[in-house]
Design brief:
With about 425 residues, the chain is α/β, with parallel strands linked by helices. Helices cover about 50% and strands about 15% of the residues.
Length: about 425
């Protein structure tokens, strides 16, 4: 097995001391793992997480360990639905490869002299397999597919890789082989009990890029496989039977939770809301961590049953979610449930919206100021923008990404 070994990324906000600790940790890692024959490449940064001094650090790593190649920045150019998340004027400086991340479909990385071209991440296809998850209230992926459609989608992605190989692509990495705690985008389930594309079919798909998978030594491994193939039955059929049981009065918690997930996979949003609300309303206090995670999954608005639980049990939810993630979730729910219905009526009356969100305290105030700042900025209503943006930056500037904060401040300076 050939390994690309990542360094542990620094704190992304780069507080005092984080750079020194990152470089010390990177040196310790190279020293400790120097004699590990599996490691063929070091990965300095991933998708700009905590990025700084990229050229200096890239050259330092290569000088410290000239025996290995360097992926200076895995996914420095990150595309989601063909949209570049952020530009990089000097991407992959001093590295040995150009590594693009592209979701869901793979794409060709840029060509630079003397560097290999790789698609370091692609895929992210979420496929929900009931009863085989770590987090039973989640089915996350960049896109959602039913089990029967995954094989076709995966085959087409690999065919595009064949075309890219002819253009110079040296390698690609699918995200990901197995479901993990918060993502159901693996080719196998978290418990390794179900494979979403039969192994024999996967070998046929992969053989076009790697003929070795059809060799006798690879085929002999098939007898060791214990995972069973996913059920490719149309999920809507199973969900329809569950919905009929609900109509008949079935309401136990495990049934409601599974029904909500099946409804989402079948595309029945009203049914998912119905089952999710019934599930949340049936929970008993005190809430377990699993209960809390499920409430988070099924609560998107102040109108949903879980909102009052999140609003009353603040400490319990913050312990599970963390302070900032909890606050952002509350902000989004206030926006959707209280603010958007009034903002979508035209001629927004901000005094009415302010009165509506005031009972929600700091999350209500933050989302109100953010909505006003962004709204006035987009409308180029500078007279109203300047006081709103100034208040937003003064009170909540620490919560705003640096690039966005600079944009808001620049507009204030230009129009005050």
């Amino acid at each position: 097995m050939l390994v690309w070994q990542d360094f542990v990324n620094p704190n992304q906000s780069l507080p005092e001391g984080s750079k020194t600790e990152f470089e010390k940790g990177a040196l310790d890692e190279m020293t400790q793992l120097h004699n590990n024959p599996s490691i063929i490449a070091w990965v300095l940064f991933n998708e700009k997480w905590g990025q700084y001094d990229q050229q200096r650090l890239s050259e330092w790593v290569k000088k410290t360990d000239p025996s290995r190649i360097l992926n200076g920045h895995s996914g420095e150019l990150l595309y989601v639905n063909e949209q570049l998340r952020s530009p990089s004027p000097n991407a992959y400086v001093s590295a040995d490869m150009t590594d693009v991340h592209s979701y869901p479909d793979p794409m060709m990385s840029i060509k630079q002299a003397g560097k290999a071209q790789v698609c370091g991440e692609f895929g992210g296809i979420g496929v929900f397999i009931p009863d085989h998850q770590w987090l039973t209230g989640s089915a996350w992926g960049y896109i959602q597919e039913k089990p029967a459609a995954l094989k076709a989608k995966y085959t087409i992605m690999n065919q595009h890789l064949q075309l890219m190989e002819k253009e110079g692509l040296s390698g690609s990495i699918y995200t990901q082989p197995f479901d993990v705690e918060g993502e159901q985008n693996g080719l196998m389930t978290y418990d390794r009990e179900v494979v979403k594309i039969p192994f024999a079919e996967m070998r046929k798909i992969h053989s076009q890029l790697n003929p070795d998978v059809s060799s006798p030594s690879w085929l002999s491994m098939a007898s060791d496989v214990t995972a069973r193939d996913a059920d490719l039955t149309e999920p809507g059929i199973a969900y329809s039977a569950m919905l009929q049981e609900y109509i008949g009065g079935k309401r136990d918690l495990s049934f409601l939770k599974k029904m909500a997930m099946m409804a989402m996979q079948a595309g029945d949003k009203p049914g998912a809301l119905l089952a999710g609300s019934a599930y949340v309303s049936s929970l008993k206090m005190p809430l377990s961590e699993e209960d809390i995670n499920n409430v988070i999954q099924f609560t998107k608005s102040t109108k949903d049953a879980g909102f009052s639980l999140m609003n009353v049990n603040v400490d319990a939810f913050k312990r599970v979610m963390g302070d900032r993630k909890y606050t952002v979730a509350m902000m989004n729910m206030i926006l959707k449930g209280e603010m958007e219905p009034l903002m979508n009526q035209g001629n927004t009356d901000w005094s009415v919206i302010e009165a509506r969100v005031k009972p929600y305290g700091a999350p209500g105030e933050e989302i109100l100021l953010r909505a006003k700042t962004v709204g006035f900025y987009n409308q180029q209503d500078w007279a109203n923008y300047v006081p709103a943006a100034r208040a937003y930056l003064e009170k909540f500037g620490a919560n705003i990404p640096e690039q966005e904060r600079s944009m808001f401040q620049g507009a204030i300076d230009q129009h005050k």
